[in-house]
Amino acid sequence: MAATPVWSVDPRTGKQREEVAAQATPEDVDRAVRAAHASRAALADAVARVTFLRTAADLLDGAAERVVETADAETALGPGRLTGELARTTGQLRAFADSVEEGSYLDVRIDRADPSLSPPRPELRRYKVPLGVVVVYAASNFPLAFSVPGGDTASAVAAGCPVVVKAHPDHPATSELCASLLRRAAVESGLPADVISLVHGFDAGLELVRHPLVAAAGFTGSVRGGRALFDAAAARPVPIPFHGELGSLNPVVVTPAAAAERAEEIGAGLAGSVTLGVGQFCVKPGLVLVPTGPDGDRLTGALAKSLGESDPGVLLDHRMRENFLSGVRERAALPQVDAPVPAGSGGEHTVTAGYLSVPAVSLLEGGPHALLLEECFGPVTVVVRYADQGEAAAVLDLLDGNLSATLQLSTAETGGAPGSDGAPSAAALIGRVTELAGRIVVNGWPTGVAVAPAQHHGGPYPAATSHSTSVGGTAIERWLRPVAYQSVPDALLPPELREANPLGLPRRVTGAR
User: Fold this and answer.
1) Looking at 74, 161, 178, 282, which residue is catalytic?
2) Between the CA of residue 156 and those of 191, 208, 257, 295, what are the distances in Å?
């Protein structure tokens, strides 16, 4: 049977650009996984991992013009956005190299033996070891930072795990280019090229999560696709961790006091967040609670003005465009739902931004209005007009887990003062949305996820399938497992745990650092 070709497609025209690869057969998947599995011993060398991560960053920076040009041709995200994303990507690679050098990710803990305790305590030494082969399912909306050279790949390699990436069909040429640069970086660092592999095709994705030598998986995408893979990972004879980011509404709550204080500023800022990247960010605010009354009207007026002035944009592919258009039409057709600025088709290949408005009481009736509580990927948001704090709280009670939750507060409220008309304090509101999301934003917008040690990009299901983060230094923890050594002679311990600490690692000894 002839191989099924993989085409690079221009979303600005819908036309095929070039044939870049073939969809992987089961035999191809098996070879890639086995080659990755065979490279594990080489990745045990922390110095080689550090060299690889930094070399990969340097090679990507050196090929920046070609990488950005290729990614733009496949995603229409624009050179400016992609240049920034490439900098974020290479910054992640270097940050994880720094983490490996510093060593605290291993969480080395030593408890001295103490026979005087009851019961006596033996000598215990604990650290973390890599899981094994990691499968990374690339995301559509970040062809670099959440794709082949992205944070999942960087953190897995930093942990000592070889990676097989399942390319996203929206940017196969970009994936091939980045994979070639990463494989070259591996060889230049003294590692086998197969510490990084790339496969294409929907069936390959299923084959990977079921392969007995695969030890864990990372996914960024839709609820439907992610849940299918999550279930497959759990249904294996030996289940594996599946760290999936599936979907998020990213609610925003505007308090009455905040609307009174700066309605126009909030409305314009909301429009900017909704239209950033043509609404294709996983943390786009998709549900916004705005008070009824003149202040809320001023806010939505500013939102409408800014959205009306935004340019039509190209989505990542025509399938997403059709899903966006049909999703907006279906939501706009619901009873009591208005479209003050209709989102829709801006032409044969583009879409326009807009927003829908619904009274909170209608949303609380349930029924078909539950559709408004599902993510609609693209430049549209749902504004829910609430009459009082009771209605706002009831809407929040309807929400599933989210990546982020944003509060727009007044100056007085940020100091912890109680709200108006008997509303709870802003601190209580923060406590409420903390139950819903993995990142809480005050007087800002959730789009733009800083790569930093304290970052958390995850949340309760369906935002994520685990409690870990896919962004920031602690993302490495997903690919490690702890092992404790009890009463093991020093000469037989791994170097990381020996008494002399030959690697100079940070460690906690009997509770002290």
Assistant:
1) 282
2) 15, 16, 45, 48
Phi, psi of 235 (to 5 degrees): -85, -5
Amino acid at 183: R
pLDDT digits (tens, 9 = 90+) for 298-346: 999 999 999 999 999 999 999 999 999 999 999 999 999 999 999 999 8
Strand partners, 482: 128
Q: Which of 198, 189, 177 is nearest to 36 (CA)?
A: 198
Examine the residue annotation and report whether 245 is marked as an active-site residue of this protein: yes
To the question of pTM greater than 0.70 for the whole model, the response is yes
Of the candidates 266, 250, 297, 289, the one whose C-alpha atom is nearest the C-alpha of residue 395 is: 289
pLDDT digits (tens, 9 = 90+) for 86-139: 999 999 999 999 999 999 999 999 999 999 999 999 999 999 999 999 999 999
Torsion of CA 153, 157, 161, 165, to 10 degrees: 30
**Tokens 């496969």 belong to residue:** 199
Residue among 494, 513, 436, 507 at smallest CA distance from 102: 507
**Which one of 74, 85, 207, 245 is the catalytic residue?**
245
Give the contacts of 71 (CB within 8 A, at least 6 positions apart): 77, 82, 143, 144, 171, 174
